[in-house]
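[scheduler] slot 2 assigned
[scheduler] job type: sequence-to-structure, two independent chains
[scheduler] chain ordering preserved from manifest
[runner] begin chain α
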Amino acid sequence: MSFLQVRGLAKRYGATAVFEQVDFDLEKGEFVCIIGHSGCGKTTILNILAGLDEASEGTVIMDGREVAGPSLERGVVFQGHALMPWLSVLSNIAFAVKSRWPDKPRAEVRAHCMKYIEMVGLAGAEHKKPSQLSGGMKQRVGIARAFAIQPKMLLLDEPFGALDALTRGTIQDELVRICQATRQTVFMITHDVDEAILLADRILLMSNGPGARIAEVVANPVPRPRDRQAIHHDPHYYTVRNHLVDFLVNRSRRYQRGELALVVNS
């Protein structure tokens, strides 16, 4: 049995189905990205996995238990940092840690938080408030907070979408390093094809909405470890990149119109 099983997932508003018959699995320790045009329901799927929204149909089973409501077993990082502005970096993370382990002594909470603050490269900024941080630093806090509760699965909703290219690359590298060290299971939404190739083990491609579905599941052929400076020299890189871009430009609409059959693996 896979660590995460999604079966027959659908979301409807009245007679309109945003997506339907969405089926996929995640294995423990796997990094999966989902790509599709706006309106196909990617964020709604992530919110259902997080327990923040309810599906109209279908089930989500994680580690043998059905997902029903929010849980600290699933950490979420949104595109907006979602930090409490009146708390310091340390206190923002500690708030989550104390929610996860309410009986943990204060000294242990601080040491635990500092471990993840250092892990995302924010040592020395632990007493700063969010207003004193750059956008990239705020996202690092959000990532540290999510990792600090040691969730069984990490859900990322375009967490780097609003960042400049240099900052985005730096935090992507931090995420790769942390995931390799912790073997974290990750489900991530992205619009960036290169980001998906750098990070993902598999890439889910969604057809256009309404009535969107998982049209293709692409196994990433680029071997790990991956280096952003050298990845484009890999012989598989342009093959998989061209396949993903062609899907977004051409095939996603043809799947929507039923001109192409859904592909389980590619």
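[runner] end chain α
[runner] begin chain β
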Amino acid sequence: MPVEYKDYYKTLGVSKSASTEEIKKAYRKLARQYHPDVNKKPEAEKRFKEVNEANEVLSDPDKRKRYDTIGPDFARYANAGNGGGRPGNFTWSYNGRPGAGGFEGDASAFSDFFRSIFGDAGDGSGTMTADELFGRTRTRRSRAVSGQDVEYEFEIALPEAYKGLEQQIEVKEQSGKSRRLAVKIPPGVKDGQRIRLAGQGGPGSGGGPAGDLYLRLRVKPHPLYQRDGDDLRMELPVSLHEALLGAEVTLPTLKGRVSLRIPPETQNGRTIRLAGQGMPRASGGAGDLFVTVKVVLPTKLSDEDKDCIRQIGERHAEDPRSSLL
């Protein structure tokens, strides 16, 4: 039975002068249209194979050159017999890559016309799989996958958050093994902030890099200071006479002890600002410390103490609640 000539250019709907890019574009369009994953019509599979075969030839420069050479005189070539030699009045040779050929290794998927020209030398290099065609990637090698990121909580005290620290910590892996890591925490870190240890997470696969380990910091509450962003707030107990007459008191801060002047006649609840005595800022400098005066009234008063207070009250008889009336 004579072998039927196939016009691959017509199959793809392109001209004989079409560029590689035009051929690729036409193939993608038709392959999507007739791919068995999409088109369930009975004739779609046959059309899909024809489109793939045409692309197999026209997308390969060597195959396309051989096809263009033999095509116009295919009848005489076929009569001369399959194989190298002198079909008609010209000579040809093919230096393509040897292989099993065909669609995903099946040489029988090619037509008799294809095999009469190329034998089983078609290696399927121009054929796209369904995964490639629809934007999915598939490879024979294991895909490099990055390791999983891991997160641990790490608790520190407020003075440690103020100064920063370097220390060894122990982390336990999913396998049950423990390992020690050096951690450097910069000054001024906040509660909930994360510290990244690059490459210390789960191992990668297929040559992929290891994941990262994140330490989520938990800053423990402090009995004296309350944090407000980069500022600190505290209450300072002062005695009644210190509030009335003024005083110089020693105040503890995270930086060290400082002197604080309590002005005379300081009212209970007054707030005094100490610039730069707060938490270190990442951008440089530090926040402030706000000290709220808490006047502590004396107890266990003697009769003499009570007489003195009455005398003071009589001399300063203004009603502190007059503004409320």
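[runner] end chain β
[qc] chain β: The mean pLDDT is 81.
[scheduler] slot 2 released
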